[in-house]
User: Fold this.
Amino acid sequence: MDRHIPFEALHNFRDLGAYPTTDGHRVRPGRLYRTDSLGKLSEGTADWSRFRSLGIGTVIDLRYPWEIENNGRIPDHPSFTYHNLSIEHRPYNQAALAPDVDPGPYLAERYMEVAQDGTKEIRSALELVAKAAESNTPLAFHCASGKDRTGLLAALVLGLLGVPEPTIIEDFTLTERAAPALLADWKLRNNGRAPTWLGFGRAPAAALRLFLADLTSRYGSIEGYVSEALSLDPRALSTALRSALLEKRRERPRNSQE
Assistant:
C-alpha cells in the first residue's frame, strides 16, 4: 500500500490511518497526516486545493523558527490553526556529515536528544493531537523532510494508539520512497551540489528501532516516557486518542449454519 498522497511540491505527505492495533482496532483514515514542509504550498495552486480538500483544522510545524524564516511556512487561512513547536534544540547539518556515518545509530542518538530536550514542545504537540482528535478535526504535522522530527512524533502517537512497534517502524521507513525527490529538492536549493552524507534523506528501520529500544530502556515504554519526561497522564492521553481515532472493532459474522 502506498500511503503517499500525491502533491506537486510535497513528496512525503502521508495518511496515518488504517494501521491495525494490537487489540484488533484500526486507526481512522483521514484524521492524522504527516508530511514534509507545508511551507512549500502556495495559495491558488492545485496543491493548495488538494490540501484544503482534506479538511485539516490544525497544523503543527516542528521546525526551528529560523527554518521558517528562511524557507517559509504554510499560508495563513481561517480554516486551520497553525502552531510552531520546535522540538529539536541541538541543530545538526545532515548534508555535511562524512560519507561513512552509519545513519541508523547516528539518527537514533539525535532522536533521543530531541526526546529529552524538546519535552515542553512534544507535550504541547501531543495535547494538540488529542484536542484535534476529540473535536473530530483532521490534523497535519511536519518538519522539513517529514522524516526525523515528524517520525519521532508519529512514533509516539501511533504507540499511544496501540499500533505495534514493527508497524510503527514500517511507517517510518516509507520516507525511503520520497528520498529521491527530497534529495533532488536539496540539490536544486544548493546549485546542483550533492550532500556529502550518503545517508541524507534516508529512513532506515534501524534508526527508529534503536531509538525505541533506547526509549524503552530509559523509561520502560512510550507510556513511561509520556509520564516521566512529559508529565502527562499516559492512560488518559491514550484513552482520549483511542476513543477518537480508532475505529471500533468489527464483529465477526456469525456462521450462517449455526
